[in-house]
Fold this sequence. Notes:
The protein is mainly β. The chain has one domain (10-121): Immunoglobulin-like.
Amino acid sequence: MAQSVPPGDIQTQPNSKIVFNAPYDDKHTYHIKVINSSARRIGYGIKTTNMKRLGVDPPCGVLDPKEAVLLAVSCDAFAFGQEDTNNDRITVEWTNTPDGAAKQFRREWFQGDGMVRRKNLPIEYNP
C-alpha cells in the first residue's frame, strides 16, 4: 500500500533557489536536476507562481529510486523592474506511485488521499 508510506526525499540541483541574470529582453533557460533519493518510485509535478513568465519542461513525470531528471526552467522576456517578481517560484510536488502502477504519470495520484510532499525553489532575478 504505497499511499500509507510517506514519500521519501528528493534532491534538487541547485538545492535552494534558481537565479536568472539580466538582460531580460530575451527568453532564458536554466536547467535543474531532480533526483529521487528515496527507495520507492515517485510521480512528480512542477507548479509555478507565474505561468505567463515561467515554464518547466517536462512539467511532470515518474522517477524510479535513485533516478534523476533534468528539467528546463524557462523565463520569457519581460520588463524587469516594471513587473512584480517577488513571489516567483517553482514548486516540485511528489508522491509515491501506487504499487504495480505503470511508469506513466497520472494526475490522479495527487488528487486522492495519499501524501504529497512539496519543495519550493524561489526565483531570483539579478539586474
